[in-house]
Amino acid sequence: MTAVSPTDALRSALRQASVAALILALPAIGAGWLGAGMPGVWGAVLGVAIAAGFLLVTLVATIATAKAPPTAMAAAVLGSWLAKMVVLFAVLFIIRDQDFYSRIVLFAVLVVTVVGIMVVQTRALLTAKTLYVDPTPKSAQTGTESDETDVTAVSRSGEATP
C-alpha cells in the first residue's frame, strides 16, 4: 500500500466517522422508539446529531487548515471548539425544559455515539499509511544547498552505499 498524505488520512477519518454516525443512528432510533416511544426517537436523533456535530467539526477544521502553519491550525481547532461549546450550551439551554425528547435516551445515545465515532476516527488515523518524515528535504525541492547531513546507507557487511 502506498503512503497517503496526512490530509488524505483526515479526509478518510471524516468519511468513516460520518458513515459510523449514520449507522449508529439507525439502531439508536429503533432502541429509542422501543424504550420510550416518540420521545425516545427524538432523544436518539438529538444524541446522534450533537455527538456527530461536535466531533466532526474538529476534523473539518483540521482538514481546512492542514497546509497552514501550526499556530493557524491550533487557532482554528481552538476556535471551532469554542464555537462548538457555545452551540452545545445553547442547544442544551433551549431544550432543557422541553418534554418532546427522552433525557435518558439522549444521554445514552450521546455516550454510545461519541465512543463509536472516536473508535472509528482513531482506527482510521492509526491505520493510515502516512510518512513520519518528508522523503524529499526542502533543499532538494528548491535546488539549494544547505548544511543538512548526508545520510549514507550501510549494508549488512558494513560497507557504505550511496
TrEMBL record:
<protein>
    <recommendedName>
        <fullName>ATP synthase protein I</fullName>
    </recommendedName>
</protein>
<feature type="transmembrane region" description="Helical">
    <location>
        <begin position="40"/>
        <end position="61"/>
    </location>
</feature>
<keyword id="KW-1133">Transmembrane helix</keyword>
<feature type="compositionally biased region" description="Polar residues">
    <location>
        <begin position="152"/>
        <end position="162"/>
    </location>
</feature>
<feature type="region of interest" description="Disordered">
    <location>
        <begin position="137"/>
        <end position="162"/>
    </location>
</feature>
<keyword id="KW-0812">Transmembrane</keyword>
<feature type="transmembrane region" description="Helical">
    <location>
        <begin position="12"/>
        <end position="34"/>
    </location>
</feature>
<keyword id="KW-0472">Membrane</keyword>
<feature type="transmembrane region" description="Helical">
    <location>
        <begin position="73"/>
        <end position="95"/>
    </location>
</feature>
<feature type="transmembrane region" description="Helical">
    <location>
        <begin position="101"/>
        <end position="120"/>
    </location>
</feature>
